[in-house]
């Protein structure tokens, strides 16, 4: 009996010291504490480190565990690079098996058996094979339909979950305050309220299905000139009133469990190591209890870019100590760069324990300890069908009709010939952070499939968005030492002196060393390069050859200098005419030096260019004259590392539109892109213009339905379209100026305002009234008005509510969006529409940055855009 009693007494002891963190009946915090107490420093480090990888289980690199992996993804492997490559050929089952294989190793072969979090990108669809690709995020915002976006996000979440993805690095809830920014397409636009509502719809759909969302990029990663991740210098007040709003609300109301930091610095400190931002604001003031991750390789940016850390170890210590929880790198080998700071105690122990606890808490909440593996019984048939229907609906609601003279649209079913121009008509581009889509349909195919039997489609590529007048000389025309390409000698000075510190066989000369130098032996702002070899001419005749770059360069042919721009200047393209003979070999030498960093150099010619755009336009004119209507599908080039200095249509698309405008054939311009374009050179001659954004895998079908009136356009702009780049940055909710808004040679007003979008029908607004015109700070009221469809088509109208504080103790915006509704009305139908106005909608920050509702009068404005507000009334707060 004594021995039995002793044995029974040992049971709780064994449970307490051996199995608590594996006991699902225990509270999460007890499990976290128990597991944390068992972990070594190295095991803790690996729980705050994440990478793209295919597992690395065979070589033991994961023997101490890891926070999580992005399977079937990789990078170029250097610690400075930021962009990733995604293997989109793996189907769902292949990805699931990779996850299960890696998870099984972590659970069964590591000391503590801590599972990983499989993560991935899912901005507007999971970036994987066979997954639906919805219209880009900016297009989702253009629907102004949070219910629809919730359904779309729910579908993406289901496609993530069957593949075992438990965290997505989405959504982007930055404000697109300057449309030159290349990543505008990834956002929900310029407005804090609209961005918040769209973000909440997206986030709740994922979090409710057990998938962690990661709103990003914290904070304000669009800087002066619309340049991505430029240094930000903004006051706390401005941040609180604008950029902070979506993040604060998605944490508090959407329960987002992770946040991703930005690459840029904020007021002199990199965001990834900014204690005021990550700890004082996010965790202490806002009570965020999730975990913070860096953007890819952003922590090392302190060393590589911001120059505030002497090495990667120090940058990692700065980040973790400031409030970063997980370091996101692009190669597993980078772990050794950061670990020394954890090992030697530079990383604060309490801060590390807090970071690890946040990660473990999420893993317990996800149920990964109990259910680490993903079912391999996958049936995607129903998902594919539902995805096609949903992506099409989002595309339909996102199209914004900007101009429609003479009721050119919708096209009559009797139209006999359509002249269709543009590479974007055939490409079906999906936008940044996209997978391949499932059965994507181009505009050309949509027209051919849906109306091709009755309407002849005359297609021509027209003018590409890419200027193809010159091409980079390929390796097939270059030879050195019996190998394709040129011998490259890299020097650690700017004058090609001495022996090279690095040599290579470069296939082409087409380099942009944005973040780092060509080699670790070189300083990014102090080196020179010489390329030598032979050039073989593919054709006979006089052609142009030259260099394009942002620093000093020289070009020699047969030892004769033909281009000499050695003195440092701004970005420039130099070309010379040169007589070539087909098959002849020419000695070639290119020299380049860099003195400022961000070196860029290209070797170009036009001998391989087969077309002349000036000759192509007359052919396009002939084609347009044969048709009843000409449709130009124009496109822009943008994205990460692709900010735009000019908002004009790139290439020679504008010249094409101008020529077609003179044919007498009605011209419709459809724009594929994720941001604003200027139109001053061609808008007057076109009959109709529509913004398609990146319309997703079903875009071709949705656009065809739009053109022929099967759907009525109802999208509204989530960004402001300027008349000219000189107006930028230009947003609708700016603060009052000290003078006028106009220039001496340009209006200050936009081309198309925020919230704008036409319909095939017309709507009238009338009879605005407040339920109570005077309320206390604690009360609510309702504003009512009548909306009538006065046209001949059924349609949706997005009604918008704006507020202006007539007299305030601090400067307030000229107007602020505070509500919107999508209302469907049949032709001739009238409805009463109601908005509730609460004190929460009228809150502002006082002089001490405390939220208050000030007594006084507020202008309530209702209409179809930020500029078209026919209904106004005044609400008084006592």
TrEMBL record:
Naturally occurring in which organism (per UniProt): Fluviicola chungangensis
Domain PA14: 481-621
Keywords: Hydrolase, Signal
PROSITE patterns: PA14
UniProt similarity note: Belongs to the glycosyl hydrolase 3 family.
Alphabetical list of Gene3D superfamilies matching this protein: Glycoside hydrolase family 3 C-terminal domain (3.40.50.1700), Glycoside hydrolase, family 3, N-terminal domain (3.20.20.300), Immunoglobulins (2.60.40.10)
Signal peptide: 1-18
GO molecular function: beta-glucosidase activity
Protein name: Beta-glucosidase
GO biological process, one term: carbohydrate metabolic process
Listed InterPro entries: Cellulose_deg_GH3, Fn3-like, GH, Glyco_hydro_3_C, Glyco_hydro_3_C_sf, Glyco_hydro_3_N, Glyco_hydro_3_N_sf, Ig-like_fold
């Amino acid at each position: 009996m004594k021995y039995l009693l002793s044995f029974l007494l040992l049971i709780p002891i064994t449970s307490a010291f051996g199995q608590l963190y594996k006991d699902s009946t225990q509270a999460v915090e007890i499990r976290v504490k128990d597991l944390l107490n068992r972990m070594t420093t190295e095991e803790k480090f690996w729980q705050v480190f994440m990478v793209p990888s295919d597992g690395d289980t065979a070589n033991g690199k994961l023997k101490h565990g890891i926070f999580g992996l992005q399977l079937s993804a990789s990078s170029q492997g250097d610690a400075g690079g930021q962009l990733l490559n995604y293997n989109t050929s793996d189907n769902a089952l292949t990805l699931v098996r990779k996850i299960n294989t890696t998870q099984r190793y972590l659970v069964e072969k590591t000391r503590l058996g801590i599972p990983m979090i499989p993560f991935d990108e899912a901005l507007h669809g999971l970036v994987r094979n066979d997954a639906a690709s919805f219209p880009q995020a900016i297009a989702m915002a253009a629907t102004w339909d949070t219910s629809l976006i919730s359904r779309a996000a729910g579908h993406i979440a289901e496609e993530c979950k069957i593949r075992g993805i438990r965290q997505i690095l989405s959504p982007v809830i930055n404000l697109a305050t300057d449309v030159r920014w290349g990543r505008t397409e990834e956002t929900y636009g310029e407005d804090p309220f609209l961005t918040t509502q769209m973000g909440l719809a997206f986030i709740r759909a994922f979090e409710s299905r057990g998938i962690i969302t990661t709103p990003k990029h914290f904070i304000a990663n669009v800087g002066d000139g619309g340049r991505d991740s430029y240094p930000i210098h903004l006051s706390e007040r401005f941040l609180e009133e604008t950029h902070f709003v979506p993040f604060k609300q998605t944490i508090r109301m959407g329960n987002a469990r992770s946040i991703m930091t930005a690459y840029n610095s904020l007021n002199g400190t990199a965001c990834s190591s900014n204690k005021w931002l990550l700890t004082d604001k996010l965790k202490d003031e806002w009570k965020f209890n999730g975990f913070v991750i860096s953007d890819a390789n952003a922590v090392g940016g302190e060393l590589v870019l911001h120059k505030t850390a002497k090495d990667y170890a120090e940058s990692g210590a700065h980040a973790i100590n400031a409030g970063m929880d997980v370091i996101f790198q692009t190669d597993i080998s980078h772990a050794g760069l950061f670990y020394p700071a954890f090992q030697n105690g530079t990383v604060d122990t309490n801060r590390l324990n807090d970071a690890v606890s946040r990660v473990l808490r999420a893993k317990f909440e996800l149920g990964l300890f109990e259910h680490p593996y993903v079912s391999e019984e996958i049936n995607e048939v129903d998902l594919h069908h539902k995805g096609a229907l949903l992506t099409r609906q989002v595309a339909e609601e996102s199209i914004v009709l900007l101009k429609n003279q003479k009721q050119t649209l919708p096209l009559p079913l009797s139209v006999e010939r359509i002249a269709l121009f543009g590479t974007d008509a055939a490409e079906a581009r999906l936008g940044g952070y996209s997978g391949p889509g499932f059965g994507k349909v181009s505009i050309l195919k949509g027209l051919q499939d849906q109306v091709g039997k009755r309407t002849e489609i005359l297609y021509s590529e027209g003018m590409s968005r890419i200027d193809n007048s010159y091409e980079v000389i390929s390796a097939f025309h270059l030879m050195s030492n019996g190998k394709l390409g040129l011998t490259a000698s890299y020097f650690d000075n700017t004058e090609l002196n001495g022996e090279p510190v690095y040599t290579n066989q470069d296939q082409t000369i087409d380099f942009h060393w944005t973040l780092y130098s060509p080699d670790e032996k070189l300083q990014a702002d102090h080196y020179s390069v010489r390329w030598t070899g032979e050039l073989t001419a593919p054709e006979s005749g006089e052609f142009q050859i030259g260099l394009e770059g942002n620093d000093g360069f020289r070009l020699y042919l047969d030892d004769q200098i033909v281009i000499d721009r050695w003195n440092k200047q701004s970005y420039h393209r130099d070309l010379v005419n040169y007589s070539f003979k087909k098959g002849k070999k020419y000695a070639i030498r290119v020299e380049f030096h860099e003195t400022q960093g961000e070196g860029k150099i290209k070797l170009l010619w036009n001998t391989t260019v087969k077309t002349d755009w000036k000759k192509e336009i007359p052919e396009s004119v002939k084609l347009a004259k044969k048709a009843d209507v000409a449709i130009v599908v124009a496109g822009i080039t943008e994205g990460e590392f692709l900010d735009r200095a000019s908002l004009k249509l790139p290439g020679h698309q504008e010249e094409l539109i101008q020529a077609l405008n003179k044919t007498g054939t009605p011209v419709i311009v459809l724009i594929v892109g994720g941001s604003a374009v200027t139109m001053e050179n061609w808008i007057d001659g076109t009959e109709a213009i529509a913004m398609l954004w990146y319309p997703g895998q079903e875009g071709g079908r949705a656009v065809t339905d739009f053109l022929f009136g099967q759907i009525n356009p109802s999208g509204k702009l989530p960004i402001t379209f300027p008349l000219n780049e000189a107006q930028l940055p230009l947003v609708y909710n700016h603060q009052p100026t000290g003078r006028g808004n106009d220039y001496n040679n340009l209006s200050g007003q936009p081309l198309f305002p925020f919230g704008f979008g036409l319909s095939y029908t017309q709507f009238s607004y009338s009879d605005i009234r407040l339920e109570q015109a005077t309320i206390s700070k604690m009360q609510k009221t309702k504003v009512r008005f009548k909306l009538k469809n006065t046209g001949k088509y059924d349609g949706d109208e997005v009604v918008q509510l704006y507020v202006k504080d007539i007299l305030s103790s601090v400067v307030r915006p000229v107007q602020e969006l505070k509500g919107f509704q999508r209302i469907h009305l049949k032709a001739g139908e009238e409805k009463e529409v109601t908005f509730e106005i609460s004190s929460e909608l009228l809150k502002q920050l006082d002089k001490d940055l405390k939220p208050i509702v000030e007594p006084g009068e507020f202008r309530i404005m209702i209409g179809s855009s930020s500029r078209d507000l026919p209904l106004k009334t005044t609400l008084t707060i006592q």
